[in-house]
Design brief:
- By secondary structure, the protein is mainly β.
- The protein has 2 domains: 81 residues, no CATH class; 82 residues, no CATH class.
- It contains 1 helix and 14 strands.
- A 9-stranded mixed beta sheet has the order 1-4-5-9-8-7-6-2-3, with no helix packed on it.
- The chain is globular.
């Protein structure tokens, strides 16, 4: 049980300062410009120039449409391997793209700054194996004492019934016990910024 819980906690991923692209991921197929809509999630971390993809794409094309932007991949092997770093240019900047089978948790606060207190309104999405398996209105705040001085923050999240946040509800996420309060623990010095 301890091993399973520790592994599940490892899977909870949040990238500080990143956003979930609401637009579908589409692939531009080289010369004929055929556009194909894919299932899955891409999380963009503009600070660390990272893209995490949780989906079913097996072959990596030369160009990937992410929201309104196009990532031009430097190397296009026949297969898109999980855990391997792929370099590309997005809006004139070099980004690193990773395919992962780890669940992705995406938090969107519509540009509202997350502070220590009080919890602010946000939206949480959980993506597993290319599918959105959970979505909720949340209240979120920075947590910790000394850890708040680190470059990557930890967060306290509460699942809210509505945008007012007067009522919370409990839910089981990633096979863990039901609760209305969740902690997204940011290990600031972890190289891939996945946890």
């Amino acid at each position: 049980m301890v091993r399973r819980t520790a592994f599940a906690l490892l899977l909870i991923s949040l990238i500080a300062g990143c956003k979930q692209d609401d637009d579908p991921i589409v692939i531009i197929d080289g010369e004929d410009k055929t556009v194909v809509e894919l299932e899955g999630a891409v999380v963009r971390d503009s600070t660390h120039k990272l893209l995490l993809y949780n989906g079913t794409l097996e072959n990596l094309p030369e160009k990937i449409k992410i929201g309104q932007d196009t990532l031009v991949v430097s190397e296009t092997p026949s297969d898109f391997a999980k855990g391997k770093a792929y370099s590309g240019i997005l809006n004139g900047e070099i980004y690193t793209l990773y395919k992962t089978e780890l669940p992705i948790i995406s938090v969107n606060t519509d540009s509202r700054e997350i502070v220590d207190e009080p919890k602010i309104l946000g939206n949480l999405q959980l993506w597993e194996k290319g599918e959105k398996t959970f979505e909720s209105i949340i209240g979120i705040e920075i947590r910790g004492g000394f850890s708040q001085t680190f470059p990557k923050k930890s967060y306290s999240v509460e699942l809210w019934e509505d945008e007012a946040g007067e009522e919370s509800y409990s839910e089981s996420l990633l096979g863990l016990c039901e609760d209305d309060d969740w902690i997204l623990d940011g290990l600031w010095n972890e190289p891939l910024h996945l946890r």
